[in-house]
Amino acid sequence: MIDVIKLKAKDYKSGIKPIWCPGCGHFSVFNAITKAMAALAISKDDTVMVSGIGCSSRLPAYVDSYGFHGVHGRGLAIAQGLKVARPDLTVLAMGGDGDGFSIGGNHFIHACRRNVNMTYIVMDNEVYGMTKGQASPTTALDWDHSKLTPHGPGVRPFKPAALALASGAPWIARAYSGNPNQMAKLIVEAIEFEGFSFLHVMSQCITFCPEQTDWKAIVHEREEPALVDADEAAKLFLHEDGFQTGLLYSEQRATWPPAAAVAVSEDAVAQLSASFRV
Amino acid sequence: MTMANKELAEFLAHSVELESEAKERYEELADAMAQHHNDQVAQFFLRMAQEVSHHLAEVSGLAKGMELPQLRAWEFNWPETESPEAASYEALHYRMSLRQAMTLALESERAAESYYRQVADGSDDAETVRIAGQFADEERSHAAELECMLLELPENGANLREDDDEPHMPE
Predict the structure, then answer these.
(1) CATH of segment(s) B3-69+92-151
(2) Residues A77-94, buried b or exposed e (16+ Cβ, 10 A)?
(3) What is the pLDDT of residues B74-120, one digit of tens each?
(4) pTM
(5) Among B36, B161, B169, beta carbon nearest to A146
(6) Which domains does chain A have, with CATH numbers?
(7) Measuring CA to CA, which residue among A56, A8, A54 is closest to residue A34?
(8) Residue B1 — pLDDT band, cuts 50, 70, 90?
(9) What residues of B are in contact with residue A206 (Cβ under 8 Å)?
């Protein structure tokens, strides 16, 4: 008889020490991911973390699972390809706001539209941290801390939840790095959701945006159940303050690829393999 | 299992989680500070982790042989969003002084004491009241030790929002 040993959150840590700045919100996201993995008793061998480039994209190295630290903004492309090729795996893609909404913005909107059954976690600190603090697509228009934008970027920031909804994402939630336990619950729900689940995390950058420590006093947990109607969700995402956490929108939709396409493509791959056989 | 034992089991499950999280958190904070060459604060957090590990062993010993409820991270009933003794990740800064680190640890010890005291005051189960009261006293003694240590430290500390080693922004 084989004893099944239930792993604890710390058992999902690789042992590589994070080099994030002390005070960085990403520590909390790392904590939440390992708690979620423990809660799901997820197999390390069947889980893959895929990232792009940036401070937050270092996270796969810290988790004891398979991982791929990819090219800037291209984590989603790799993750979707992997999930389509190996639907048996649990695939999580992750990165920052610059990686996800700017460099990889095109991949983001099409991943929302495509609805592959996987989870995408964006750790949004409204700044490019690894390259020393430039404005990102979610930076406030009057943020003047960078010499590159001394009067602020002067353009309105993206609303990531609204962008995801408009692009077709069927599951949208928001978490805050100051509440890793709520975030762990949302990650569990995201992984269990059948489709593309987008978790937007407000994760503070203590170094370049120390004012984000004030978020703690502003965030508030959503008390109502998640919206299931896209029109209602659009109204919410366009008019809310952006500091509401919890599952905001969830609507079941057909995932990609459809079963018929999978059967055809498996056959096509077999034919292709045969044609190269010597 | 009687209702009273159920209450005790639930309390001990919370206590094991509280002490485990505190130990792991102090270790993480120590690692983070060591990575950024603040060795004095790293050593302090490591020492705190060792202190908490003694308490964790005591709590685990009391729970030995009992069937504790298996709760997921978000199912614990804490006064705030996290277990009381886990110092916030976000309160850290690489320039943190020993005094600031000690103050953070003191807040955590006081939060743990307050939690245990609330359980002791709010429980109808005599054994839960006794053990929670004992844990609260132990946390109070840890806090008192830190208070004494703080008295011996100078009243200085970096203003963490005014970084005189500003990030290098080359553009």
Answers:
(1) 1.20.1260.10
(2) bbbbebbbeeeebbbbbb
(3) 999 999 999 999 999 999 999 999 999 999 999 999 999 999 999 99
(4) 0.93
(5) B169
(6) 9-276 (3.40.50.970)
(7) A8
(8) very low
(9) 90, 92-93
